[in-house]
Write a structure and sequence with these properties.
With about 150 residues, the chain is α/β, with parallel strands linked by helices. The protein contains seven helices and seven strands; from the N terminus they run ββααβαβαβαβαβα.
Length: about 150
């Protein structure tokens, strides 16, 4: 059994980028400025400040990733306060907060949140008709897990 979570036409989008991917995310955000302006944006640390300046749009700023920003995003996903994650992560560099990154990506799967880890995936998400309308996301029922005897 599952339940349905409504994702409104105006999405709550979290945006994160590792240092070596910030330029790529800024280029992508510039190309998608109009669509981003129709949504509420959240971003970690420097990424958020750069996006706010670049887009001339308010961005709800979270902590830097290594200081807990990734975990803040994960918490917001679990609380159903984030609808979509754009996370341009760097696969070629070890990050001091790699366990947090893995946990964040895991939560996207647990809570059925669309996530783009590169420009191509972000382009596919943003050109989907579902970006412009309400969407009913099926959420796995975890009551068996929660009610298990330990």
């Amino acid at each position: 059994m599952s339940h349905i979570r409504k994702i409104a036409a105006s999405k709550r989008i979290a945006m994160v980028a590792h240092d070596n991917r910030k330029t790529e995310l800024m280029d992508w955000a510039t190309a998608n400025r109009e669509l981003l302006s129709k949504n509420t944006l959240y971003a970690t640390g420097t990424t958020g400040r750069l996006l706010e300046e670049l887009l001339n749009q308010p961005v709800i700023l979270l902590l830097s990733g290594p200081l807990g920003g990734d975990q803040q995003v994960g918490s917001m996903i679990a609380e159903e306060k984030i609808d979509l994650l754009i996370f341009f992560w760097d696969p070629m560099s070890a990050q001091p907060h790699d366990p947090d990154v893995k946990a964040l990506l895991r939560l996207c799967v647990v809570w059925n949140i669309p996530v783009a880890s590169n420009r191509a995936t972000a382009d596919f998400l943003f050109t989907s008709p579902l970006m412009h309308e309400d969407y009913l996301a099926e959420q796995t029922d975890y009551s068996k897990y929660l009610n298990r005897i330990v």
